[in-house]
Design brief:
The structure is a homodimer.
Chain A (H helix, E strand, L loop, with lengths): L14 E4 L2 E5 L7 H9 L12 E4 L2 H8 L5 E4 L9 H12 L3 E4 L3 H15 L6 E2 L10 H8 L5 E7 L2 H11 L4 H10 L8 H4 L2 H13 L10 E3 L7 H9 L2 E11 L10 E3 L12 E11 L12 E7 L3 E7 L5 H22 L1
Parallel strand pairs in A: 4-5, 5-6, 8-11
Antiparallel strand pairs in A: 1-2, 2-3, 7-9, 7-12, 9-11, 10-11, 12-13
Helix pairs in contact in A: 2-3, 3-4, 4-9, 6-7
């Protein structure tokens, strides 16, 4: 819901798709949003959505080609495909090349092709690309990093970026078995049916790569991240930590290699995996890490996510969210959309 | 220092002043910044800064009138004057009326005349007004609230906005006498020589009023805030809290009166002052409040500052900073300045 005094920018849904195909309204009148929502909530597929004035297409890219008008905004919420980028990357490339603004919740296009997409977006016909929904849902990690820390040199970014693993580690600390914790996480809707990207740390590493490219201006790839998931964390590890007043968190870290204080203040000891990748301006890692239970990271439990920026000018800025549902991420896409529309309106005035 | 890959926008200092008067460079060449910095660090006043091509003026407003060119940016870092707004408000009014963009660290113009200034900035010749430095130094409270939560309805804003009082309360919890804690705070440069605005809660209330006007779109005045400072907090109060695992923090709260959950999750009990002002969309208060020592607010100790936004879409977003020096606030003015320049450059493309 909008705060009083704010006006909703004029938005019309001209095309929409799922894995079954897509629909586009003829004549630019816009699709009936409430009908579409009801349709999907009833478990029906887009290819069977029949209305007067609505054309059908066999795939998302065909729908996009039919609906594409320069200045439109493309929302990419397709599943993460780290092998090829999938339909999401294909659509983002098409959009960027055709002056269609991009709003992403899908991380894969950015993880695989950030520099390429940014370069294409800058070429004529130019367009905006926003993706605050890709890192920590509603928590504006990317936006704060890109805009509010824009006149500082960032020495370290650390965070807990994945709620599924954080939830499992928290439940294990309460004595629950890892597999039971995972099942609970799936039942309450935090974890995916296939949670391997979460448990192996890839989701966290994806977010770190996006922060590196967008906030640190460091063109990192997934292979630059020294990556350890939580699959080998045992109840014994967690009990050992508890004896020392510590808990285990899956922590992502980007540490500046030059002109950087050598130790982080918060992290007390690291996991068994101690190697770091050795090329580039920042050392990148994702690994289970012991932290004091009364520290900022220790206080991020259950489905919480958080980030800490250390910079030369702003010292330490920490942010956390304890969002539970899917609305914060959806709303993050909406705020990016509103932001693009505001910047277009400003340019037209 | 700038992050790699970021470019410093072209900036020229055309005029500068202190309480002794101001100087303006002739012919738009720009004043020598490093000379100015050295001059001030040697304790000298601007009225004695003599250079070829530099004109002198008896007051800041005269300097501003002489240097004023539409599209220039005015930095207001003058002292807070809650009675009249002082030279800061006078200069901001002049700037807004003449199409000069405003970047404020001084809270008084916003506390006394927010709605008036915003309205003037929108009239032709239009200009930008940014003030992220006025609330919690480098922590982008205002920017996140205005931009990143722009498609949500905010139900509650709570925070610790004043580092002097937080430092004193923390030291008192360690057994130090309030007056000794204040003297230490003054010695380490956290507290002003005259700390009454801090201790009586006015500085915190000022920041709450700015958040109300800019983030909540609620035209609050200082008199709308139910205000209790920390001057009556005793060592006994703090010891009583400690027995219950609690600490005392000076907490500012804006609570939505309609469609709002009736209790905040974090605050466990309130101070002796329990009345709230009864008009308007939000109830506003600043008061010493007992919180659990292991809560987010309890973990904000010493010179930390923090904010918590609760909204319908983004659930709970919390931010904190543990900045110690003056650079974060200066750098917040710079980020606002850079932001204005970027938006101008976008409009010109």
């Amino acid at each position: 819901m909008l705060q009083e005094g704010r006006t909703r920018p004029p938005i019309r849904i001209v095309g929409v798709s799922d894995s079954s195909g897509g629909v586009v309204c003829k004549g630019g009148r816009g699709l009936p949003l409430s009908d579409l929502l009801r349709w999907k909530m009833e478990g029906k597929s887009m290819c069977s959505f029949v209305r007067d004035g609505v054309d059908h297409y066999d795939s998302t890219i065909e729908m996009l080609s039919a609906a594409a008008v320069r200045g439109n905004i493309l929302f990419d919420g397709t599943p993460v495909d780290l092998q090829t980028g999938g339909m999401g990357l294909e659509c983002c490339r098409f959009g960027a090349a055709n002056g269609i603004h991009l709003v992403l919740a899908n991380k894969a296009p950015l993880v695989l092709a950030y520099q390429e997409l940014i370069a294409t977006c800058k070429e004529e016909p130019a367009c905006c690309i926003e993706f605050s929904a890709t890192v920590c849902g509603g928590l504006p990690v990317v936006n704060v990093g890109r805009r509010d820390l824009s006149c500082a040199r960032i020495d370290m970014v650390q965070g807990i970026f994945n709620s599924t693993t954080n939830y499992i580690l928290s439940r294990m600390a309460s004595g629950e078995d890892a597999s039971v914790a995972l099942r609970t996480a799936q039942e309450v809707g935090i974890a995916e049916a296939d949670p391997s990207l979460d448990l192996q740390g890839f989701d966290t590493a994806n977010k770190l790569v996006i922060i590196c490219n967008s906030v640190l201006n460091f063109p990192a790839k997934l292979s630059d991240v020294d990556l350890t998931g939580i699959t080998d964390v045992t109840s014994t590890d967690i009990q050992d930590a508890a004896v020392n007043g510590e808990v285990i968190r899956l922590i992502a870290t980007a540490t500046r290699r030059v002109d950087t204080p050598s130790t982080g203040a918060e992290v007390s000891s690291s996991s068994t995996s101690t190697s770091t990748s050795t090329s580039g301006l920042y050392a990148l890692s994702v690994k289970p890490t012991r932290v004091k239970d009364n520290s900022f990271f220790g206080g991020c439990s259950d489905s919480d996510m958080c980030v800490v920026f250390r910079s030369d000018e702003f010292e330490t800025i920490s942010m956390k969210t304890d969002e539970k549902g899917v609305f914060p991420t959806s709303c993050a896409m909406l705020r990016d959309c509103f932001g693009i529309i505001r910047s277009i309106q400003n340019n037209n005035n």
